[in-house]
Design the sequence.
């Protein structure tokens, strides 16, 4: 799982080729949360909102992306900060196809992740194609630690 | 006091303690409720329901992360509990009560800020 964390005024976080499964999602969530709190001066509510929204994007990738495959595929998590716009952007991409809820599935979170992402982020988009799904989450008024 | 379930090392940590206060079963949840640990909450609620309580309180005040997987368990519990068993959820904070309110689960499950408030509501 290659990773990059650049210090300075353009904080960046990346976890590429991570296994799209719940254990990996939980580990990346903890790492992302630590990075977020180190890099930005966020109040408790905003920090909590960002971590939950990113978790839900990864959870969707872990739940939906590879349901037909024998093994979990990969997901990529990247966070970029634009200091001029004070904007934090987080993308979570996978190479699978999300499925809508079906009668055979028992996942209780089904259907709540996307409304949560929209409620928690200032802007949330979900782009699906045959090549995979990319969730993009944005927050404004984010100040980096100097 | 009975410790029903404990953590998975190196994964998400979740501890659930169950105790009985009169006719009410109280589940005190601590740590993380996510995709990995939501089943622990589901099992704890099912176990608490077996002793014919008048109500079940799920206290999330020591939870520092609640994902939609855990919220789904709360909604399912409300749907699946017998009509004679009341449900209440205790939560107050950015990681718990805030997302429950944001997507409208607070009204469904009966949200209270403190255990005392929840006990008062269920024993009223």
Sequence:
């Amino acid at each position: 799982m290659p990773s990059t964390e650049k210090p300075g005024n353009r904080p960046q976080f990346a976890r590429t080729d991570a296994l799209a499964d719940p254990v990996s999602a939980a580990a990346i969530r903890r790492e992302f949360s630590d990075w977020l709190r180190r890099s930005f001066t966020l109040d408790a509510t905003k920090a909590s909102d960002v971590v939950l929204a990113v978790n839900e994007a990864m959870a969707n990738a872990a739940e939906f992306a590879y349901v037909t495959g024998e093994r979990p595929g990969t997901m990529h998590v990247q966070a970029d900060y634009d200091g001029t716009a004070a904007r934090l952007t987080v993308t979570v991409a996978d190479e699978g196809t999300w499925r809508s809820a079906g009668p055979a599935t028992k996942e209780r979170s089904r259907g709540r992740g996307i409304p949560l992402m929209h409620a928690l982020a200032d802007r949330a988009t979900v782009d699906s194609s045959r090549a995979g799904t990319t969730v993009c989450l944005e927050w404004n008024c984010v100040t980096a630690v100097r | 006091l009975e410790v029903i379930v404990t953590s998975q090392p190196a994964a998400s940590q979740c501890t659930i303690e169950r105790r009985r206060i009169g006719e009410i079963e109280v589940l005190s949840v601590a740590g993380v409720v996510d995709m990995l640990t939501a089943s622990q909450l589901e099992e704890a609620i099912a176990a608490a329901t077996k002793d014919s309580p008048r109500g079940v309180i799920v206290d999330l005040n020591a939870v520092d992360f609640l994902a939609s997987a855990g919220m789904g368990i709360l909604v399912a519990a409300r749907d699946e509990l017998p009509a004679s068993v009341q449900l209440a959820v205790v939560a107050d904070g950015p990681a718990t009560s805030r997302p429950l309110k944001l997507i409208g689960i607070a009204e469904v499950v009966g949200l209270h800020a403190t255990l005392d408030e929840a006990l008062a509501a269920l024993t009223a």
Chain B has a mean pLDDT of 92.
